[in-house]
Amino acid sequence: MTEPETHRDRGAHRAERRGPSGTVLVWIALAVVAVLLLLAAVFLIPRGDDDAAGNKPSDAGSTSAAAAPSGAGTAKGDEPVVVGRGETRAKTWSALLQDSGVALGRPQDDAGTRGLVSRALGEAAGGTADRTATDEALKFRARTEGDAAPVRSAAERLDQLAGNPTASASAEPTPLSPALAAGAASGGPQPNTTVVSRADWDDYHSKHSDTDLVASTPADTDAPTADDATLQKALDQWAHLAEAFHALVAIDASGSMAAKVSEDGSTRMDLTKAAAQTAVKLFPDHDELGLWKFGRELDGTKDYRELAPVRELSETVDGTTQRDALAKDVDGLTYYPKGYTGLYDTTLAAYRQVLKDDAPDHLKTVIVLTDGINQDAGSIGLDELLTKLKDEQDPDNPVRIITVGISQDADETVLQKIAAATGGSSHMARAPEDIQDVFVKALTSE
Fold first, then answer.
1. pLDDT (tens digit, 9 = 90+) per residue, 8-39?
2. Predicted TM-score of the model (pTM)
3. What φ, ψ does residue 188 adopt, rounded to 5°?
4. Residue 344, CB half-sphere, CA atoms under 13 Å: how many?
5. What is the spatial distance between Cα 431 and Cα 444, in angstroms, rounded to a whole number?
6. What is the biggest distance separating any 2 CA atoms in the chain, rounded to whole angstroms?
7. Which residue spans traverse the membrane (predicted)?
8. Going by C-beta distance under 8 Å and a sequence separation of 6 or more, which residues neighbour residue 218?
9. In this model, does residue 43 exceed pLDDT 50?
């Protein structure tokens, strides 16, 4: 505060020496400042003709974004729009997030995706969208699409749509589905819409004025955006879930997996194999997966047998890739008609294997799928297993266990305790048709 006061004293001294002319100069200076402030106000206040200019014929149905924190991607041009061959029928941004036909980028560096995430979270907080469904969609996107290879830029996604004659934003939203995501990841049906920023769309449209793509936003929505802290938390979670995966999957091969569970004669094992095949197709090449099957004394005295060690899915294995080798191993899975379930010994062995694996900067995980309870009288007990899981954990590079119970026969309480001991999660596929979705949901959980 002392320096400004010093300047003011000097100004007063000069005024005394110069007489009235100094006063005149002061008034002139004040007048100039006033004019400058007036001009600034004129140029900074939004003008109606600017808004109209932004509403091009191809942007029918678009609405202006609500004001939001700086981290929400609301700078001019960062507002998200939906692009396809027709106006979107989605009524909320959360619905778009949950639509498997909508392609996104990485929200950390894609303004359009970041704006969609912010608005979906804002809707969930305000009660116009289901919070659980929004959170689950964010996790699924991060794990299966947000870091899938290749993640396309906004311009690339628009080019992809332009070259896809079936792309139509007017199509009814299709709920996120593991099967659809796996199909798209392996060259199947591609997205029919995408979300990009207003600036990205304007740039594309200026270079392709004859395009039949149009931009729009959800109908009748002036969606609130998430506050900075909420948005940042979501972005951090996205980045975490998009980290490379290092997972060992152990599948129950006991006799109870032969139980027929559908009218066409499919068994629990058949449905579990189908779910595992989906998972194998679903994840990026940099993810690392391996496979065990378990029962009781499948390999000498061991209750489990390794079918494939954990390797990067793109790694070459005997002239093929780890992904293709795993798909073949999964297809060959069989149950043992009189086999029992060695759940506890297998879980501990898989946990120790992944603990010692050299996989820094990966999400180290064991996924156990079972339809029963531990039936190995000679194995360790549950209390001992839980103690060992906690005591042997590596705080610097932890391993989480995710359990998936198949059918009502699985002991839900036991599976929850096993997962909780490592900070993992437990899931139940109570009905046969739930196995695929539950399995992939388990893989995409934190």
1. 333 333 333 344 444 444 444 444 444 333 33
2. 0.67
3. -80, -155
4. 19
5. 20
6. 111
7. 24-45
8. 63, 82, 88, 90, 91, 92, 93, 95, 96
9. no
**Tens-digit pLDDT profile for residues 126-140:** 999 999 889 988 888
Tokens of 324: 């293709």
Q: Are 285 and 222 in contact (CB under 8 A)?
A: no
- Return d(Cα 127, Cα 138) in angstroms, integer: 17
What the block records as the tokens of 175 is 């709920």
Rg (the chain; Cα; Å): 29
Query: According to the CATH classification, is domain 244-443 in 3.40.50.150?
Result: no
Residue type for position 416: Q
DSSP 145-159: IITPSSPPPHHHHHH
Above 80 in pLDDT, residue 60?
A: no
Q: Measured between alpha carbons, how far is 299 from 278 in angstroms, rounded to an integer?
A: 27
pLDDT at 408 over 70: yes
Q: Among residues 336, 334, 267, which one has the least CA distance to residue 307?
A: 334
Of 252, 251, 249, 260, nearest to 372 by C-alpha is 252
**Which band of pLDDT confidence, cut at 50, 70 and 90, is reported for residue 377?**
confident
Closest CA to 275 of 444, 433, 98: 433
* Domain locations along the chain: 58-240, 244-443
Omega within 30 of 0 (cis) for the link into 178: no
Count of residues making up the chain:
446
Q: Which two tokens stand for residue 445?
A: 């959980």
What pLDDT score was predicted for residue 337?
86
Among 105-114, 219-228, 312-321, 429-438, whose mean pLDDT is lowest?
A: 429-438
E strand intervals along 10-101:
80-84
Candidates 320, 414, 302; CA nearest to 368 is 414
| Tokens of residue 58, six digits | 């191809």
- Residue 197: predicted pLDDT: 97
